[in-house]
Design brief:
Layout lengths: L3 E8 L16 H13 E7 H8 L11 H9 L2 E4 L12 E3 L4 H10 L4 E4 L3 H9 L5 E7 L20 E8 L5 E7 L2
Parallel strand pairs: 1-5, 1-6, 2-3, 2-5, 3-4
Antiparallel strand pairs: 6-8, 7-8
């Protein structure tokens, strides 16, 4: 059965939004970890905000250092979880999921293929954890306090969810890569 895997850049104060505004370094170890994720997944799930932002960017990348990722994500099946979008055809290989997220995730996990990456999409990741649908949470914890005005991964009133640390290591820039599985 396929797994649903999310990898997020994360600050010490719990911020996951807009890492481009507070991420001070992207080292080779983080690049290798993201490459492993790409190699182990063949589909992407994202929420409305990430889909809207990325659909306007990634299809237009035709050269440069981001070309490999652009080719991968543009060609991968993309599943969009949204209750407000009605059309996702602007970005090739995109499918709008139905309103029953748990049923859609069960259907996708039961299908053939590699794991499914959940990219960006803080609200979606939060919902997947809340509903016990996410199988792997990878956090790249940067030694920085991002400060207010940005979304945290988990709201202050989030329900108690137990996770098990299954792997961790520090990168050369001081980022701690931590992989968690839910305790079910």
């Amino acid at each position: 059965m396929r797994k649903l895997v999310s990898g997020l850049f994360y600050s010490l104060d719990g911020v996951a939004e807009a890492p481009d505004q507070w991420q001070f370094a992207f080292d080779d170890e983080m690049g290798a970890a993201l490459s492993r994720t790409i190699e182990s997944t063949d589909a992407v799930m994202m929420g409305r905000v990430t889909f809207t932002d990325w659909a306007g960017y990634w299809p237009n990348v035709t050269e440069g250092e981001d070309l490999d990722f652009a080719n991968w994500i543009n060609n991968a099946p993309k599943y969009v979880a949204s209750t407000t979008l009605t059309d996702v055809s602007a970005w090739q290989n995109s499918t709008l999921l139905g309103s029953d997220l748990a049923a859609e995730v069960a259907r996708l996990k039961a299908g053939e293929g590699k794991d499914i990456a959940v990219t960006g999409s803080i609200g979606l990741v939060r919902s997947l954890v809340e509903q016990d649908l996410l199988d792997v949470l990878e956090l790249y914890i940067h030694p920085v306090v991002a400060g207010g005005g940005r979304k945290k991964l988990f709201a202050d009133d989030a329900s108690l969810k137990k996770l098990q640390l299954v792997d961790s290591y520090a990168t050369s820039s001081g980022v701690v890569a931590a992989t968690y599985h839910p305790v079910r």
